[in-house]
Amino acid sequence: MPEVQDKSISQEVREIEIIARRLVSSTLAGQYHAVFKGRGMSFDSVREYQPGDDIRTIDWNVSARTGGIFVKQYVEERELTVLLVVDLSESQKFGSQKKSKRKWAAEIAAVLAFSAISNNDRVGLILYTDRIERYIPPKKGRGHVMRIVQELLRFEPQGHGTRTDVALDYVSRIARKRAVVFVLSDFLGDGYDRSLGVLSGRHDVVPIVTYDVVDKKWPIPKGIWLLEDAETAHVAKLDANHFETLVQYSQRAAVADRKLEHLIRKFGMEPITAAVGADYLTSLVAYFRRRAARQ
Amino acid sequence: MNTWSFEHPWFLLAILIVAAAAWARNRSRPATVQVSSTAVLQQIKPTLRVRLHALPDWLRVAALVLLVVALARPQQVDTEELSAEGLDIMITLDLSGSMNAIDMSDENIQKLHDDGREPDNRFEAARKILKDFIRGRKSDRIGLVVFGSEAYLRFPPTLDYIRLLNALDQLVLDDGRRTNADRMNCQNDCTINGGGTAIGDALNRAWMRLDTSLDKNKQKSKSRSRMLILITDGKQEGGKLDPLTVPKYVAALPEKDRVKIFTFQVGSGKETRLPAFDPMRGMPIVDRFGHNVYQRPERPFPTDPELLAQIAQLTGGKFYDSYDAKKFANDFKDLEKTTFKTKVRTHRRELFWPWLLVGLSLLAVEVLLRRSWLRTIPD
Q: Which of A7, A248, B56, B368 has the smallest C-beta neighbourhood within 10 Å, fewest atoms?
């Protein structure tokens, strides 16, 4: 069995790689690049002045010493650190569609990882539940990304709950340099407000809220549903025949959504929502566009 | 008598199994569908349906219990005591003058007088008890022989209890005030008088009647079970036949033809009173309150319990020493119990149907609810 599983996982990794590469090369690359430009320029070298060069770039010291006219050559400081913080808690395992939220998050994270790598960024991975499950320090290279993708798909977490605050605090601690932090979670837990505020103050945090349609709106099937909370094992009953109940269900879910969005925006971030099975690419691209426009 | 009982009470133990199963099911986690979070659900007010969600489970338990009870087969057992084929009973009742006596102490007589009542003499007590006895019979043919100095067949064995009771009512005790010379006033159609205790003659007459009476199918009474009841208060006195003649004869018969003779010795107690009688006026003496005056007899009445015991013993009957009216009544009850209540017919009315039907309908309701209004997912 494990062999078969391995095979299927490596297959999945391959599939995700293909999907991600295609997406990255076609639509996403430019956008990603435009948004995450890195901070400032760094001196690279000097070269001889050519007509058309901005005279402000002339390196007078070098010119004086050598007798010719040289201009400073800068390169963009591209080397960004991208941290993928992925929630692997039990609630992420839920899926009414073909894929669970976890798979979905993994796929999005993979796409982001490939985007980052194609921009020559360093990518690190943090998997968490109610604790830090796995930390892969940021590195470059395709092999590293493949490892990250594999980890995303294969890792079996020990914990069951969700402590997003623990994960965020951890990122705050380890990431000295300013990094781009993608947080992929359903953000169902509570008590991470402060951590999120601290983290977003120092880093470029992009919350990607994964959710399943069922989390927001009860689908048609009628009857009394015995529903078990994936994390607390609390059993609740839902009367799906009762219209008012369903309305309330949607309303309460929407209220929770608004609360989350409010919180995220309060710290100057913009949430990306990724419903399982829906087209996340569009929202990613749209997000990047908006950010690019702001800069 | 009717009582409840279970034909197979052991099946009731299955209730324990039902209870255990219910308990186990209650403890085990139900099948559920996992969702990301129930936080939202907890905020929603539960609907009636949600609150009644466990109803089918309870219905199931109730139905199973009812079905188990049905399985144990509850029955209403009516026990009807009857002598199936009916006996022929001859009652021989002593009408001698001493039956006039009262077996009661002065205080007790006084108590009755204070209540405005007259005490029953032996004869009246016997009459009451016999009437009760006759009323309690259903298929026994009962005849009556009365005796004093002679024996007289008052009524042949009959099922016509009303007339028999009438005949019993019409009996008049010879209290010595009247003589058979007076045609208008003589006792019991001038048949017998109380001047003796002809036990032998009485037994003979009763026995002859039993032995020759025909039943419905003109069969001899022999084909039926027979018994003889002798009620007397004295010893054999007068009469032509020795009291043991008949018992001895009966005892010598083949077993199936034998007749048991049950003998009652009434009034052998120490407290015996006779109503005072004014021979001059020919009337009982009455005190100023209008109550009869009672006095101790000049000499004790002669009794012969040995003889009665012997008669009973010879014929396989039983001797009762009924020293006063209360004891007499109890003894007669005892006779009824031992002789008549041996045959018991039990009607068993099966009562499982309502249990079964209610159980099944509860089950049906449960299944219906589960399938429709209270459909639970996952099932």
A: A7
